[in-house]
Amino acid sequence: MTYPQWPGQLSDGLAAMSLSLSESQQQQLLAFLALLNKWNKAYNLTAVRDERVMVSRQLLDSLSILPWITTNHLLDVGAGGGLPGIPLAIVFPEKRFTLLDSNGKKTRFLNQCVLELGLSNVEVIHGRAEDCQPDQPFTQISSRAFTALENLVIWCGQLLASEGEFLAMKGQYPDDEVAALPAGWQVESSHSLKVPGADGERHLLIVTRAEQHR
């Protein structure tokens, strides 16, 4: 079921973010949010349960990293309820998205989203990042509310191409996590994200391998 305020909140939010999406893409985003809301009641996919803030906290927040998506095949680790992977896949139908999660309930939900929304550019993998063996490493790996940066690079470093980058979505700037990054990794850049209707800070940290030769 779609909350009646959602379409207006989405179109207003997209306008505030200077994003132009087709009517069908907006409908797909809202259909995804309705699925997330419905399944969340039984599957505990996300902590956000207030329908009044779901467009901002789920959809617009996911789309806030659009300017930094440069790869043709993105891996979303700890994909959970499909954030940011599913909204990004709707906006970028020409790109491929692999959504990885070790929780069977969450991957069942993600497969249902792929089926109901007709997302032919999305592959769902049920498993742990450490056990994943892709045909080739990814140039970009996104992560939202998944784990600390230290764990991210340790668990998923082997999945990242040598020149690749992690797109780590965080709330407040995580000084302690940055300080705990293992040797050989660095925060190449940090970006403050503007999400219409969202309280609190949001940051995107681009994490890469430190240059071997200076």
UniProtKB/TrEMBL annotation:
Species this protein is from: Marinobacter shengliensis
EC number(s) given by UniProt: 2.1.1.170
Annotated S-adenosyl-L-methionine binding sites: 78, 83, 129-130, 144
Protein name per UniProt: Ribosomal RNA small subunit methyltransferase G
Record localization: Cytoplasm
Gene Ontology biological process: methylation
Family: Belongs to the methyltransferase superfamily. RNA methyltransferase RsmG family.
InterPro entries: rRNA_ssu_MeTfrase_G (IPR003682), SAM-dependent_MTases_sf (IPR029063)
Catalysed reactions listed for this entry: guanosine(527) in 16S rRNA + S-adenosyl-L-methionine = N(7)-methylguanosine(527) in 16S rRNA + S-adenosyl-L-homocysteine
